[in-house]
């Protein structure tokens, strides 16, 4: 009997370790998205845990809020409640559909994602008129600087940091889709390729944040690949590919990059479902929900559209979403969001930010589509 009992215990342990996750409940996914979005809409003034770039965060056209409203558009398309659609439209109208003040800076273009959505969801062409004027100005006088962040003081006028690949290319390509003018997309393709060729590590299949990090290493000699920075790129790829026709000659570049990054990211997910702030430094790393949100978004979307194998990648999506929901406080506040930075840093359960919520909503939306 003792032998049989031990055998039963071993078998139970084995089954537990190798159990297939139950499918995610789409109703619960949507309910959690709405809860997190409602909390953020009730806290448009930054909470006390936001210590740095606080004034910038309060700016309605900032990249921080732009990422949130990009996620909110996806929730608005999937929720039966009009409150999320109305929030996007009200936000744009209060800003008079203007971009940020810096002419060339990608961060000040990001809010255009929600304006493009608003234009076809009740606001009309007025929502993208300022956006088109700005981009026409840039096409008339494009920046003539290099991408070296150490020697080019104006490199930020181009996309010389990896975050920019989320902030700007989807807006440029979206404007081409909205207007039928290919000049905007052509500019985006050329600039995206230049940034990829400069910042992408073809051996690691990850992006350096900018050129200042090429030679930096952590205390154990590992390269520094920032989770959220690569999350920006991965999510940006989704938002670009979602808008490109199947026969677009630029698709192969984006699809190849997307698959390469996905394959690498799958190997770096921690056992708790999160990705670590420094992607190669997984041991003892804290939870971090902004990078994780963007990775779950990209992987779920890739499965849904047939770019990624479902059997291989869906376990990472399910584990990642469960990790993200574990970061949601009882009142709907999303925690474990690393604060504004350009590199891996400390993060706590109480840390939150607009862009973390945006990533969460994007991830949830892709999971809802995958479950249909």
From TrEMBL:
Task: Give the Pfam families listed for this entry.
Answer: Glyco_hydro_88
Keywords noted in UniProt: Hydrolase, Signal
Any one GO biological process: carbohydrate metabolic process
Q: Metal-binding as a keyword?
A: no
Q: Name one GO molecular function term.
A: hydrolase activity
**Which top-level group of life is the source organism from?**
Bacteria
**Which interval of the chain is the signal sequence?**
1-19
Q: Which InterPro entries match?
A: 6-hairpin_glycosidase_sf, 6hp_glycosidase-like_sf, Glyco_hydro_88, PolySaccharide_Degr_Enz
Query: What PANTHER family is this protein classified in?
Result: UNSATURATED RHAMNOGALACTURONAN HYDROLASE (EUROFUNG)
Q: What is this protein called?
A: Rhamnogalacturonyl hydrolase YesR
């Amino acid at each position: 009997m003792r032998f049989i009992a031990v055998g039963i215990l071993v078998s139970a342990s084995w089954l537990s370790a190798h159990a297939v996750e139950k499918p995610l409940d789409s109703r619960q996914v949507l309910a959690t998205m709405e809860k997190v979005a409602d909390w953020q809409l009730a806290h448009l003034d930054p909470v006390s845990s936001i210590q740095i770039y606080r004034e910038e965060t309060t700016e309605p056209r900032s990249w921080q809020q732009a990422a949130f409203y990009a996620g909110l558009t996806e929730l608005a398309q999937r929720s039966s409640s009009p409150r999320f659609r109305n929030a996007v439209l009200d936000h744009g109208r209060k800003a008079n559909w203007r971009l940020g003040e810096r002419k060339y800076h990608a961060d000040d273009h990001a809010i255009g994602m929600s304006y493009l959505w608003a234009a076809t969801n009740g606001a009309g062409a007025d929502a993208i008129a300022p956006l088109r004027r700005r981009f026409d100005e840039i096409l008339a006088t494009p920046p003539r600087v290099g991408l070296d962040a150490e020697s080019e003081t104006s490199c930020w006028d181009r996309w010389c940091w990896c975050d920019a690949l989320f902030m700007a290319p989807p807006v440029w390509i979206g404007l081409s889709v909205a207007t039928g003018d290919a000049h905007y997309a052509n500019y985006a393709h050329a600039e995206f390729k230049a940034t990829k060729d400069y910042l992408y590590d073809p051996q690691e299949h990850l992006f350096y944040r900018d050129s200042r990090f090429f030679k930096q290493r952590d205390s154990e000699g590992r390269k520094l690949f920032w989770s959220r920075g690569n999350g920006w790129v991965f999510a940006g790829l989704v938002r670009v590919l979602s808008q490109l026709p199947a026969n677009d000659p630029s698709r192969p570049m984006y699809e190849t990059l997307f698959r390469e990054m996905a394959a690498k990211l799958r190997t770096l997910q921690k056992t708790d479902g999160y990705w670590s702030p420094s992607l190669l430094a997984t041991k003892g790393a804290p939870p971090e929900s902004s990078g994780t949100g963007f990775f779950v978004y990209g992987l779920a979307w890739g499965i849904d559209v047939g770019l990624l194998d479902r059997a291989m990648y869906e376990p990472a999506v399910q584990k990642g979403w469960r990790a993200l929901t574990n970061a949601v406080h009882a009142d709907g506040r999303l925690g474990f969001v690393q604060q504004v930075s350009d590199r891996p840093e400390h993060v706590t359960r109480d840390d939150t930010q607009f862009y973390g919520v945006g990533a969460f909503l994007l991830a949830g939306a892709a999971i809802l589509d995958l479950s249909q």
